[in-house]
Specification:
Number of strands: 7
Largest sheet: 7 strands, mixed
Structural class: alpha/beta
Oligomer: single chain
Distance between the termini: 25 Å
Length: 247
């Protein structure tokens, strides 16, 4: 219970400081390039995410950062738990936005940051919104920003990887960018497996070899979905086995 109180207190207690810093950042927007501004905006969510994870007392191991390409890329990860986003924000140095439920807009400060991070908001109850989120995400990538997507759509809570929905392939093909598979294991141990109470977890992240834009363009959608999903699933299974062997 103590970890839960510490974590959620920091999550919302940090917002006033974040609001002040956002105004400072936005004042520099006109004099910075897109890449410079993305990097600047990324610093605040990264500090926020690191602060949250510090309070969960979790251990994070990350490898494969050398696989992150220059320029815009579509980051494609499995979705294990609510802590996937904080973990990736804290560990991935490449600035990125992501697709989020529109309900997040009800929070103070957070959605304003997300807009400047180039996040895309999705109304899951509206099919037109789902289609628009695909076109909006592709446009963000064309404009030079990287985006993270969870093609499973919902959290697995550590119960294996579900089918990948087709939208991420349409986005990558339309934008003409590489796909970077990312395997995550252990985030559900922080919250989902504890009746939503916060406990320390051992999280492993592996950034895998990208599927180059040229390969994305020439590969049939079904093959590409299976390639990316299998790549992520194999790595997640490998990480799970490695942790089991340590026990």
């Amino acid at each position: 219970m103590y970890n839960s109180v510490r974590t959620f207190s920091f999550l919302f207690g940090y917002l006033p400081m974040a609001a002040v810093n956002l105004k400072k950042f936005q004042a520099q927007k006109e004099i910075l390039s897109k890449q410079e501004y993305d990097a600047l905006i990324h610093t605040e969510p990264q500090k926020w995410a690191k602060g949250i994870l510090k309070r969960t007392k979790s251990r994070i191991e990350t490898s494969g950062l050398e696989n992150l390409p220059e320029g815009p890329a579509l980051l494609v990860a499995n979705h294990e738990g609510n802590f996937d986003i904080p973990v990736l924000l804290s560990e991935i140095p490449k600035p990125f936005g992501f697709i989020s439920k529109k309900e997040v807009k009800k929070f103070p400060v957070i959605p304003v940051y997300m807009e400047d991070m180039n996040c895309v908001f999705l109304d899951r109850t509206d099919r037109r919104s789902a289609y628009k989120s695909i076109t909006d995400t592709a446009q963000k990538l064309k404009d030079g920003h990287s985006i993270l997507i969870f093609p499973e759509g919902t959290r697995s809570k550590g119960e294996g990887i579900s089918d990948f929905k087709t939208g991420f392939v349409r986005i990558a093909k339309d934008a003409g960018v590489p796909i970077v598979p990312i395997a995550i294991h252990g985030t559900s141990d922080i919250m989902e497996k504890n009746n939503n109470k916060i406990r320390p977890g051992h999280v492993t992240i592996r950034v895998l070899e990208p599927v180059l834009a040229e390969t994305v363009e020439k590969t049939e959608a079904k093959q590409l979905i299976e390639l990316v999903r299998k790549t992520v699933e194999t790595e997640v299974q490998s990480m799970a086995q490695e942790k089991a062997d340590l026990k």
